[in-house]
Amino acid sequence: MTTTPAASAPPPAPVLRTAYQKSVADYWNKEKDPVNLRLGDVDGLYHHHYGLGDYDPSVLEGPEDTRDERIIAELHRLESAQADVLLDHLGPIAPGHRLLDAGCGRGGTSIMANARFGCQVDGVSISETQVGFANGQARKRGVDDKVRYHFRNMLDTGLPTAAFQGIWNNESTMYVDLSDLFAEHARQLAFGGRYVVITGCSNDVTGGRSKAVSRIDEHYTCNIHPRSAYFKAMAANGLVPMNVVDLTAATIPYWELRAKSSLATGVEDPFLTAYKEGSFHYLLIAADRV
Question: Which GO terms describe its biological process (predicted)?
Fold first, then answer.
């Protein structure tokens, strides 16, 4: 009796599909910047984004030998406050819902989302190092049954269609084509689901990239989009903005404090210059899937 071998499943699409994606993944796989790790060590929430709100000036006072420790704790408070602002804009989320953290970094915002809403959260990153670290943190906190991180490309995650009530990008959109990204988000969002992005974007009014914005691009191996590109790509993919918040003024104190710390990387001056000259904005957009 002759048997026909079962057809094998097609191989999964590679996570890293372009030379640029490979270079970005390589950057984040090797990244061990103290400004990310030392802040996360404060309470085990490791973020890869900036902060919001006024800092407590008293952290600059007191004993010199503990000054840097106070600054680091305050910077971490500001970056966790930023994540809270993002989560505030997801709308009503119930424990039975599912959320997606696109470009999750080391996973801090996902863990905060699970703690707040009690729901399942998936994170995706093209950095295998970040994914492994983030899953380790979820296990340490005992939430790995609800919070899971995946080595996947946020432009084509392979995750289910219309399965997510909320999706966010927290400072990760500058690495991808916005039309491709929002098409994938629209596929994954349930009807009426909410998408939130916090990002730095160049100011269309001032025209082109300023020198300061170009220095930020170079530092992070990214490609900052103009503000208008977000709204054009959303409109083309059934994402209707419900809230648009200019967070520029609220993030400047974070950068001013960071410049005074031992963790300063040299990119603080381009950020402050770009924000203050008006060539760069820190923007939150919350949009509904229709």
Answer: methylation
Confidence tier at 12 by pLDDT (50, 70, 90): low
Q: Nearest 5°: phi and psi at 287?
A: -130, 145
Region 11-19: mean pLDDT is 84
Rounded to a whole number of angstroms, the distance between the first and last alpha carbons of the chain is 55
Q: What is the pLDDT of residues 186-234, one digit of tens each?
A: 999 999 999 999 999 999 998 778 999 999 999 999 999 999 999 999 9
Task: Tell me what the pLDDT averaged over the chain comes to.
Answer: 94
Do the Cβ atoms of 167 and 185 come closer than 8 Å?
Answer: yes
95-to-117, 181, 219, 250 alpha-carbon distances in Å: 6, 26, 39, 31
